[in-house]
Structure formats: structure tokens, C-alpha cells
Design brief:
Blueprint: H1 12-15, E1 20-21, H2 46-53, E2 59-60, H3 64-68, H4 72-77
Parallel strand pairs: 1-2
């Protein structure tokens, strides 16, 4: 099976399948706080990018940051990190 970006994650020897990182990507706080009505400021992406580049996983899942800003992925890809918006917990009440 072809692996994305040629990486071999730690889980690959066990399953042979691509692996994914999930959890508060691009934000400064944990997800559970959103259910308490807590927002989260934009977090640094340096660590997640370095881990992806090292092949620790093949994919990265983004949740709350995209709920807040539908253009999040385009901004990150273009290096426009200063344009990313903080997460507001009220976004959980909005469906697109």
C-alpha cells in the first residue's frame, strides 16, 4: 500500500495503514473545554508540522478551528497564520 508523503508512522508496522493525528490542532486548549463554553486562542502549528514531517503520522484532522474559520486550511497552506481566528465555543451551536 502506498503511504502518503512516503512516511512510515510508528503504527504502520502494526496495521500497514496510514495513521492520523487528532486533537486540538491549531488551538491552544483541549476540546472538552468547548462543552463548558470555553473558547480557545489560535495555537502554534510548529510542533504538529514537525511531527508530520518526521513521519509520526500521515494525516492531521482539524475540527474546531475549521468550524470557526472555513478558510483555515487555505490560510495555513498559504502561510497566512496571522489571519487565523480564535475559536469561539458558540460555534458549536452553528451548523453549516
Amino acid at each position: 500500500m502506498a503511504r502518503s508523503r512516503g512516511h512510515s508512522s510508528p503504527a504502520a508496522p502494526h496495521s500497514g495503514l496510514p495513521t492520523i493525528s487528532v486533537g486540538s490542532v491549531g488551538l491552544s486548549s483541549e476540546f472538552i473545554g468547548a462543552f463548558r463554553g470555553e473558547g480557545s486562542s489560535v495555537g502554534k502549528l510548529d510542533e504538529i508540522t514537525a511531527r508530520l514531517d518526521r513521519g509520526e503520522f500521515d494525516l492531521v484532522a482539524v475540527g474546531r478551528a475549521v468550524l470557526q474559520d472555513a478558510d483555515w486550511a487555505s490560510k495555513v497552506k498559504a502561510g497566512r497564520h496571522a489571519e487565523l481566528r480564535d475559536y469561539d465555543a458558540k460555534s458549536l451551536q452553528t451548523y453549516f
